[in-house]
TrEMBL record:
The keyword Transcription does not apply. The lineage of its organism: Bacteria, Bacillati, Bacillota, Clostridia, Peptostreptococcales. The keyword Lyase does not apply. Belongs to the ABC transporter superfamily. It comes from Romboutsia faecis. Residues 2-230 form the ABC transporter domain. This is ATP-binding cassette domain-containing protein. One of its GO terms (molecular function) is ATP binding.
Length: 239
């Protein structure tokens, strides 16, 4: 279990996370909130890419700050698209990321084949990533995140820029691998997570304003509607 306890994070005067606590067990959790809610900040803190002002994170009861690398090895992270390695081929990128994750040379080839097939990029691995479309870049980020089958998968808007068919593929992939791992997916696209999440966490201006199963939230906030209606209600028409 991953326990996020009382995390407080500021950027100068701006409070990005206001004493947030959540507990995550195996399964998919949808982190839903409008732009600027604090989703990326939370994910960057969990993955140790950003420090927090206050709070702590426990993994199976142990403080992750003390676990250090041992904890980070258990995490796969697909950040929001950023400066990728344009000169690398997809294969070289996955090989590089796999090596960083400590995957042995012997298993690297089969692991690259497995993850690239899972995101439908197996036949594109020898192209340079600079020539990849936005959707392909997104998919190779997902592929590197699932390398080594991490116990915790953190995904920041994994389906951004993907066409409907690819969105479904990624959704199905997450559902399929979620039985033995914690998966936290940040998005503002409700339909991406409605059917696969065991719990939805709603975040607004750095505060968790509601959480529950999709079914429960719909019952409480939008009877006869869907999660999209709940979202509109909670976030005042989107924001
Ligand atoms: N490096 C930074 N310096 C100053 N303010 C920041 C910085 N990063 C984020 N913020 C602010 O902190 C708040 C939370 O931002 P964050 O990126 O975590 O939100 P988000 O929910 O991921 O948004 P989006 O859906 O647009 O990605 C926002 O008000 C944002 O402007």
């Amino acid at each position: 279990m991953l326990e996020i306890k009382n995390i407080y994070k500021t950027y100068g005067e701006k409070v990005a996370l206001n004493h947030i606590s959540i507990e995550l067990e195996d399964g998919v959790y949808g982190l839903l909130g409008p732009n600027g809610a604090g989703k990326s900040t939370l994910m960057n803190i969990i993955t140790d890419n950003l420090s927090m002002d206050e709070g702590e994170i426990l993994y199976n009861g142990n403080n992750v700050a003390k676990l250090g690398k041992e904890f980070l090895k258990k995490i796969g992270f697909a950040p929001q698209q950023q400066g990728l390695y344009d000169e690398f081929t997809g294969r070289r990128f996955l090989s590089y990321m796999g090596t960083l994750k400590g995957i042995s040379k012997d298993s690297l080839k089969s692991e690259i084949e497995r993850v690239s097939k899972a995101v439908n990029l197996f036949n594109e691995l020898d192209k340079k990533m600079g020539a990849y479309s936005g959707g392909m870049k997104q998919r190779i980020l997902i592929a590197q995140a699932i390398m080594g089958s991490p116990k915790i998968l953190i995904m920041d808007e994994p389906t951004a820029g993907l066409d409907p068919k690819e969105r479904v593929r990624i959704r199905e992939l997450l559902a399929e691998i979620s039985s033995d791992k914690i998966i936290l997916v940040a998005t503002h696209v409700v339909s991406d997570i409605q059917s696969i999440s065991k719990e939805i966490i709603m975040i607004k201006k750095g505060n968790i304003i509601e959480k529950g199963t999709p079914k429960d939230l719909i019952k409480r906030y939008a009877e006869n509607g869907d999660l999209e209606d709940v979202y509109m209600k909670m976030f005042d028409g989107g924001q």
